[in-house]
Amino acid sequence: MNPLLPTRRQFLESLGALGAAAWLGSRLSSWAAGAELPAAEERLAIDGGPPVRKQQLSTGPYGPQFYDEEEKRELIEVIDSRNPFRHPGGKIAQFEREYAKHLGVRYAIGVTSGTTALYAAMAALEIGPGDEVICPAWNWYADYDAIVLCGALPVFAEIDESFGIDPDELERQITPRTKAVIVAHLQGGICDMDRIMQIAAKHKIRVLEDFAQCVGGKYKGKYVGTMGDIGINSFQLSKTITSGEGGAVVTNDPLLYERAFRFHDVGQVGRCFNESIGNGVLQAFASCNFRMSELTAAVLRAQLRKLETICQAVRSNFRKVREGLADLPGIKFRKTGDLDGDLGQVVFIDLGNRKRRDQFLRALRAEGISAVGPGGSVILPADTRIEQKRTIHPDWPSFRSPRGQQIQYGAASCPRTIDILNRFGGPAIGPKYTDTDVADIIKAVRKVYLALHKA
Ligand SMILES: Cc1ncc(COP(=O)(O)O)c(C=O)c1O
Hints:
Blueprint: H1 5-15, H2 27-32, H3 69-81, H4 91-103, E1 107-111, H5 114-124, E2 132-136, E3 138-139, H6 141-149, E4 153-157, H7 167-173, E5 178-184, H8 193-203, E6 206-210, E7 218-219, E8 222-223, E9 230-234, E10 247-251, H9 254-264, H10 294-304, H11 307-325, E11 349-350, H12 354-366, E12 371-372, E13 378-379, H13 384-387, H14 402-406, H15 415-423, E14 424-427, H16 435-454
Parallel strand pairs: 2-4, 2-5, 5-6, 6-9
Antiparallel strand pairs: 1-10, 3-13, 7-8, 9-10, 11-14, 12-14
Helix pairs in contact: 3-10, 4-10, 5-6, 5-9, 11-16, 12-15
Bound molecules: pyridoxal-5'-phosphate.
């Protein structure tokens, strides 16, 4: 049952003219039944009226829209050097310094992907068999896999209407075995970091911030990824800035940095590769090779210089659209930990339930507007391989303990997460949208939203 509906019903009834049962009802079906047709210009495109836009408006991945001579120049320098492997003073070392400075953290490590950044961060936090790690039920596979592949047990917590972890749910899932929580800022949204950090401090658990889907997002003036013990992000194609593949680990803690650095480079921390902590203080341990290529770092250096331009452009368009819709009756936007710091990739609106949300999105697309539901993540406990706790070896430590055997995943374990994800949808926002594009989005959303209300 949707806890929002009574409120909406009360609201609609309070307007007098609109019956609660009509909330987002289908005009199509009423017209098909012979009701009087509205004027052509008011008619929704999905019902045969003229669309707001004749040419579909859409935005691709942000980073490549800003590729230009800068990325080419950086890449050519690596090609001309004939030295694409990590080396002192090379592009990776420069990028790490610049990225750390930009985010306001002491250390950054360039790695091959967001997934390998997660593995390095789990190693830094010394997470292993017997440990529990709390993860939001809506998140990317890599976060779950990183927990399982280091032998620990994933424990899911429901999300709230920011699509991020619900702090109350986080606290409810903590046990004496909980070592860390993964806090993921998803689809450009911002989690409630003050509450999360308070809970983590109270229960003495570590915070791993995953800002793969929110590079450049801010919470109360600080970049997301920099408030927890350690942060990770991805530079894969769909992220704010991109080199196709790539990732980073960021932290202020020299020990976490050294462990993550060693883990990403076969246990070493030699001067040849690392200019930040010399030979370090730890001994080598079994590790991996997640080293970034100089070619990747070349593109990322150029992209980093454009990060703020991209974020500001998306945010500005996001704000204009939100402001243009703010007076719509009963409108409720996605929650955010910080409206000013939110990346604003999509203006998510609560449509009450899945059927109404899907109707709304179909009608918006027919008007020529790119419209989406929550995406880029998975309802992890409901995924078959996760529900069945499948691993490559039957004795995998994650699920061998009594607690690992007893814990139950599946859709029934995260009803609130599923309900929230079913209700929200809205227009996607691009950094290169013109004022006309923004005006068209506002016009189309108002048209569809009001038409569906009036039906
Ligand atoms: C939240 C989140 N974390 C981690 C990752 C993993 O990043 P990568 O694809 O670079 O391995 C992704 C990738 O989409 C992601 O969305």
